[in-house]
Structure formats: structure tokens, C-alpha cells
Amino acid sequence: MRGPAAAATPPGTKAMNFGPSVRRLLGRLTPHRFEVGAVIVLATISVVFSVIGPKIMGQATNIIFDGIIGRQLPAGLTKDQAVDALRAEGQSTLADMVSGMDVVPGAGIDFDALMRVLLLVLGLYLLASLFAWLQAYLLNNIVQGTIRQLRAEVEAKIHRLPLRYFDTSQRGDLLSRVTNDIDNVAQTVQQTISQLLTAVLTVVGILGMMLWISPLLALIAILTVPASVAVTAFIAKRSQGHFVAQWQNTGALNAQIEETYSGHELVKVFGRQREVRAAFDEKNEALYRSGFMAQMISGLVQPAVMFLGNLNYVAIAVIGGMRVASGTMSLGDVQAFIQYSRQFTQPITQVSSMMNLMQSGVASAERVFALLDEDEQSPDPEPAVTTDVKRGLVQFQDVSFRYQDDQPLIDDLNLIARPGQMVAIVGPTGAGKTTLVNLILRFYEVNSGRILIDGVDVTRMTRDDLRSRIGMVLQDTWLFGGTIRDNIAYGLPGATEEQILQAARMSYVDRFVRTLPDGYDTVIDEEGSNVSAGEKQLITIARAFLAQPSILILDEATSSVDTRTELLVQHATAALRSDRTSFVIAHRLSTIRDADVIVVMQEGRIVEQGSHTELLDRGGAYSELYHSQFAGPAQVQA
Question: What are the subcellular locations of this protein (predicted)?
Fold first, then answer.
């Protein structure tokens, strides 16, 4: 196999490099460092208010409990006298508990104090919610701005990639990186940063409050942290490979779907539905297995951490109850501590449950970063050579090129195409015809030798300057969703209505457009199915005519038009060729009999060149090709 497809290789499977990828992803937030700092401040204030709440709520519990116990004690006694009386009655446990309380014997619940505490807690929680909303609002702006920049970089990167990359990459996989993977990164960054930040601050704040209330109970609560981290790391290590496989399989499945959809007519014509379904089922099954394993394994994290948290809750409840009974802690402090213990394990559980989302997002980020790290086309020279001379003189000087180092294609090619000449390039498949014009456009860089346009080496020109001199019509038509007028005007930004109509007349587009109900305002659908293949080809030719290039390249451009239209296009092309160089790649040799120079290529070399009559008289390679098209089926030698 020759050409770009020969270099295509299936994408390899690479283990996820989690740590460096996370640092690189977070590094993209650097331009928003001040906003990130504000997010941290707002989140800290919100967490502080939230963390103080349970401690103050514990005071409300103490007020209620003190009132209930105080009402049961004889009025007129001091607390010490009431404790002594209880001990005298043999109620030592109750006496110990009362000694640690702030009770007034005979008094009930202090509702005024209770109301003040509840209003204070309500105010704290309202402020905590307000600062949390401000933090989320600011973080959303940061994340969306970062992802917008990432999309812009990917779009710019695609335009800087050489054609070789697109020849060796599946279109569906590339689209999956640009759409699915970036969306997954956005979702991951949006959710994990906010939750991780809040979780870390909450853990630190709650830990401080627990140490303040009871160092002993705090130690019991802290013991669950290393156990939770160990469980999370153990499970995450076994699931990360499945997340990488999941997104790779997603790209492969998208490529399969895109390829099948684009060629659905051929699939039906050749009756390959069963094979296509089998290929889809295979890739779909691979995606199912990798997705199932990724979610199933990572889904074990949250239940495991919850189990450890429940064990911690039981231990705190038992020991706290014993300390209340002994009078060394108040009931409100135990209640607050139990609430803190729940809140302490909750962020750890949230972080654990986010591991599957984090790993999925980092796997997508790696795929996007891999695209951004691809080798780019060589930069334009600085300073570049510019010239207003646009005669269309093209010279190949000892040009050699190969797609793969071990597979020569073009060696020491020399060719001169003079202004106004029509140069036809013919030869068998794989001879290097399309490659030749791709080298003119610098879609590929020559391995050695030079290509000159109007005496200037193309490598000393900017690609925009070079390609502005060249118009190209491909065998495979490309039209975008829009009107016929818009598709023609694509060849020259800012073209006037008269210029568009003139190009349409020259390419005979005007003949069929005027038969349409909406004329030039006819909207071409996404697949271009409301115009025929020949009409689409004529529109692309009109687009090239509108650009008024000094060099015109037609790559089997008349293959989709009928014989009569082909004759009209040939007349239009002849009128356009005045003072312009035309390269025509043709398989039907009847279309290039009037070419000024016919170049016959075989295995990357020019074996013959001359006019149609001269080459027929020689009886060489061109004569054999020509007669094989009109003298019946070609005889293939074994």
C-alpha cells in the first residue's frame, strides 16, 4: 500500500499517568490565580460558619437538657446542695451528671436564651450558604473560561497539525477527543475542584472543633482517615486502567459509527450490514466491559468508606455517653461531636465517591493533552519572502519524498510547469500523482530538493501566501450546510454578488441553479443530498474559479459530471487557464488530450512527458494507458 494510509497504525494503549496529568490540568488554572484565591477565601469563610454551627447548636441542647433536669430538682437549693442530696440518696451517677451541668434547681427551660442561640445558628448558616454560592459562582466562571481556552487551543492545534496526522488518525476518535473528552474534562473540573476544596477545608475545620471539644474522641475519629485513604487508594489503583480503556473504546466506537454512517450507501449496496453490525457489537461490547468494570470497581469505594464511618459513629456514641454519665462532658458537646463525626466522614466519603469521576476526567484530559502534544507542521519562516508577482511558474528541482522512511515514493523528480500551461498528470494508482500536488500546497514537506513558485522556494513563503495563489478542486466534493451562494462565496471572502454570479456562469452552475425554486438561496443540507453529485462538483469548481488563483489544481474534478457537462467544464477551464498554470490529475485520458504537457508517472518517477500526439507516437507508457481505455479490458500480466 502506498500513500498516507500505509502509515496508519492503530492507537496504542497507554497506562494513565495520573499525578502528572492532574498537575498539568490544574496548571491550566494559573491565569486565574487571583480568582482562585478569592474562591479559597470564600470557601474558607463558608466552611468556618458551617463548622461553628453544631457547637452552638450544642448549647441549645444544653439549655433544653439543663431546664428539664433543673425542673426535677427541689427549688431553693444551690447546685452543690442538690448534688450532695443526690449522693446522700445513693444516686451517685445522676449526681456526677448534674455536677457537670449548668442547672438551677427548680427552674425550667430558658426560652429567651434558647431563642438567641437558635437565631445565631440560623444567621451563621445563612451566611455560610451565601458565601458558598458566591464561591460556586466565581468557580464556575473560572472553570468555563479555562475549558473555553482549552477548546480554542485544540481548535488552533488542529489547524497546525500536518496532513499526515489526519491521514493516520480515525476521524471518529479525533471528534471524540474534541467533543466528548473535553466535555468530560469540564464536568470533572467543575465538580471535583469545588467539592475537594470544600471537603479539605471542612475536614480541617471539623478536626479543630473536635480537638477542642474532646481530644480523646477526636483521636478515635481520626483513626478512620488512614483506613479510608488506604481503601480508596487500593480500589482506585485497580480501576484507573479501566477508565483509560473506557475512553479509548469510546473513541473507537465513535470512529466505527462515523465511518459506517458516512458510507451507509456502500454498506447496503455490498450487503455488509451483518459485518458492520458484528464490528459494532464487538466495539460496543468492549466499551460495555471497560465501562462496567471501571464503575463497578470504583463504586466499591463509597460503601467501604461508609462502613468505616459507621464504626466510628458507634465508638463515639458509646464513649461519649459514658462521659456524659460521668459528668466530664455535656450532652450538647456529645451531640455536637456526633454531628462533627458525621460531617468529618462525609467529605472523606464524597472524595472517595469522586474518584471514579476524577479518574474518568483525567483519562479524558490525557487524550486531549496527547492531541495538543502532537508534532506540528514546521512553522512559517521569519521573515517570509513575499512577492506580488503571481505568474504561476512551478518548478520541481530534484524532489524526493516518502511517507515512510523505508518506502520510497518520489525520487529526484524534475518538472517545470510554465504560466498558462495545462499540465496533466497521469499514471497508475499509487504512482504519486496526488502526492505531487500535495507537495505543491505543502500539505507534506519534501525530504529533499526544492519546489519553486514564481522563482521562490515554497518553504520560504508562508502557507497562507502560498495557498492563496492556488485553487484546488478535489474528486471528493465538500459542501457545508448553507446556501449555494454561501458555498460559492467560500472561495473568496468578501466577494460581490457579481463576482459570485460570474464564477457560477463560468462553471455552468448558473444553468441548473436557475431551475431551482429558491435559486442561489437554495439551502444545501448537511449531507448535500438535495443536489446531485455532478451539481455538487460544479459548485466546488465555481468556488475555485471565484478565488482567481494563479495556479489551478483539478484532482479528477470532472469525475462526477456527465459527458455533456464535462465538455462544458473543459471549455470553462480553458478560458480560466489564461496566464494560469493548471495541474490536472486524470484517470480518463480523453479529458486531457488538449493538455500542453502530459506527465506520465510510474512509482514516483516521471517516465514520459510531452503532448498527447507526441506520447502516442512514441508508443510508450502513455500509449499503453490510452489504448487500454478504448481497446477493451486491460490484460493484467501475472
Answer: Cell membrane
Beta-strand relationship, 448-453 and 394-401: antiparallel
Q: Contact at 8 Å (CB) between 551 and 581? A: yes
CA distance 171 to 68: 74
Cα separation, 559 vs 469, whole angstroms: 24
Contact 180/250 with Cβ under 8 angstroms?
A: yes
Q: Could you read off the pLDDT of 312-363 as tens digits, one per residue?
A: 777 777 777 777 666 666 667 777 777 777 777 677 667 766 776 787 888 8
B/e letters for 292-312, b = 16+ CB within 10 Å, e = fewer, are ebbeebbebbbebbbebbeeb
Residue pair 582/572 in contact by the 8 Å Cβ criterion? no
Q: How far apart are the first and last CA of the chain?
A: 19
Query: 180-210 in b/e burial notation, b at 16+ Cβ within 10 A?
Result: bbbebbbbbbbebbbbebbbebbbebbbebb
SS (H, E, C) 168-191: CCCHHHHHHHHHHHHHHHHHHHHH
Q: Strand pairing of 410-417 and 551-555?
A: unpaired
Using alpha carbons, select from 12, 202, 39 the residue that is nearest to residue 135. Answer: 39
Name the residue among 294, 277, 333 with its Cα closest to residue 54.
333
Closest CA to 443 of 456, 431, 458, 455: 458
578 has pLDDT over 70: no
Question: What is residue 414's three-state secondary structure?
Answer: strand
Give the integer Cα–Cα distance in Å for 392 and 550.
5
The span from the CA of 594 to the CA of 370, in Å, is 49
Q: What are phi and psi of 424, to 5 degrees?
A: -95, 135
d(CA 340, CA 332): 12
Q: Cα separation of 427 and 625, whole Å? A: 8
Reported as a single tens digit per residue, the pLDDT across 611-635 is 888 888 888 888 888 887 765 554 4
Looking at residue 582, its amino acid is S
CB 564 within 8 A of CB 584: no
